[in-house]
Design brief:
The protein contains five helices and seven strands, in the order H-H-H-E-H-E-E-E-E-H-E-E. The longest helix is centred in the N-terminal third of the chain and has 20 residues, at about 1-20. It starts with a helix and ends in a 5-residue tail after the last strand. About 35% of the residues lie in helices and about 30% in strands. About 30% of the residues are buried.
Amino acid sequence: MKMFKRFAAALLAGVMVLAMLTACGGGAGSGTSTIGEEFENKYIAAINTLRGENAEKLENDTDLRNKALAQLAKINEDGTIAVTDASTTTATPNADGKSVTVLMINVGTEGKPDKGVCQAKEITADSLGEITTEGAGEDAAETMRALKKIGIATKVINGKTYAAIAIEIVTSVPNNA
């Protein structure tokens, strides 16, 4: 039970760090915008900074990026998304029986949900400055070092750029014995 609480705390810390690094604002264009590309690159750089100099540098994983794009496709034309689509988590037991692979996909949202729907955050040039590692403590750095893969995607819908992040963490299964 203690190990499960640690696992849950690590996942929550990861989500909080992702929320902290997610910028918001307004945008223009179609497909993937220049702002979107800059967001993806800056976000990966911030994650790698938090991981530290000695940690393996992560790149924008194609498979996870595609999963994040699939999540972005669930955003409606008015920029809203169902709460159940804004954030998903799946856990798959690994063959060793001692670990589990956790996949979390999060579309940046703002405000409180209303009737099961929330507003997706927009990305703009002004909001890129909000991607920072300042104030991130050792817990955030430890969580970022636990990441095995990351995929960040942006998409323009109705002239506004939105972002989603997919992360993969492999963690040990609590020993119930």
